[in-house]
Amino acid sequence: DAKTTQPNSMESNEEEPVHLPCNHSTISGTDYIHWYRQLPSQGPEYVIHGLTSNVNNRMASLAIAEDRKSSTLILHRATLRDAAVYYCILRRGTYKYIFGTGTRLKVLA
Amino acid sequence: GAVVSQHPSWVICKSGTSVKIECRSLDFQATTMFWYRQFPKQSLMLMATSNEGSKATYEQGVEKDKFLINHASLTLSTLTVTSAHPEDSSFYICSARDPIGQEAFFGQGTRLTVV
């Protein structure tokens, strides 16, 4: 399975945008990029996913580099409830996810 | 959206006993479910793939005789931790694919504490 690399932690001020980066230099053409987040003592929650084009939904936006070797999850206005560990995962066919270490996002009031 | 539910949310058991954790897909059928384990401050680690009507597929290093998986119906997979020991204390999480979308949904997790 292709590997993803994310910063261990990031901080953001409340109400400001947050850009969470993910590197996946060994991505293959059929790998989907999925983002999940996990709040303390809960299971992961789906955020967004994409293949080649940028994607928007009510939770976030996903910007995918033209060469697909990196992507960025964008939270447009961070709130205290967005404090979580964010995981970037590559999915190749199966929904058997291999989780990396993720990015712990801290939102400052 | 699709909902995956686990039961119980937390359980405390004595060392040497067995504990069963249930994972249900509430509004869809799931031929395949996945079981993960997460230790404190660590990421999720895939344990096994649960297949409806057939044997589970275990990841390398996971003892199949210790972690018994049964997927007897299209909406229920169970994970039984047999002869539990304190080192089995962990957060166990299951997931299943949303048959309509292209994402997997996760249960809320089960916190197992073995004393």
Report on the architecture of this protein:
The complex is a heterodimer of chains A (109) and B (115). Chain A is built from no helices and 9 strands. In chain A, strand 6 and strand 7 (70-75) form a beta hairpin. Chain A has strands spanning 9-13, 18-23, 32-38, 45-50, 55-56, 61-64, 70-75, 84-91, 103-108. Chain A is an all-beta fold and 109 residues long. With 115 residues, chain B is an all-beta fold. In chain B, strands 2, 4, 5, 6, 9, 10 and 11 form a 7-stranded mixed sheet that branches. In chain B, strand 9 and strand 10 form a beta hairpin. Chain B is globular, with a radius of gyration of 13 Å. The relative contact order of chain B is 0.34. The mean pLDDT of chain B is 94. Classes of the chains: A mainly beta (109), B mainly beta (115). The A-B interface holds A 32, 34, 36, 38, 41-46, 49, 87, 95-102 and B 1, 4, 6, 32, 34, 36, 43-46, 49, 91, 93, 95-97, 102-109, 111.
Index terms:
heterodimer, A: 109 residues, mainly beta, 46% strand, B: 115 residues, four-stranded antiparallel sheet, 0% helix
Report a brief summary of the structure:
By secondary structure, chain A is mainly beta.
Structural class from helices and strands of chain A? mainly beta
Measured between the Cα atoms of the first and last residue of chain A, the distance is 38 Å
- Approximate shape of chain A: globular
Mean pLDDT of chain A equals: 94
**Uncertain residue segments of chain A:** none
Question: SSE string of chain A, helix = H, strand = E?
Answer: EEEEEEEEE
- Report the helical percentage of chain A: under 10%
Radius of gyration of chain A: 13 Å
Oligomeric state of this protein: heterodimer
Whole-number mean pLDDT of chain B:
94
> Could you give the order of the helices and strands of chain B?
EEEEEEEEEEE
Helix count of chain B equals 0
Total strands of chain B: the figure is: 11
Strand content of chain A: over 45%
Radius of gyration of chain B, in angstroms, nearest whole number? 13 Å
Structural class of chain B, please? Answer: mainly beta
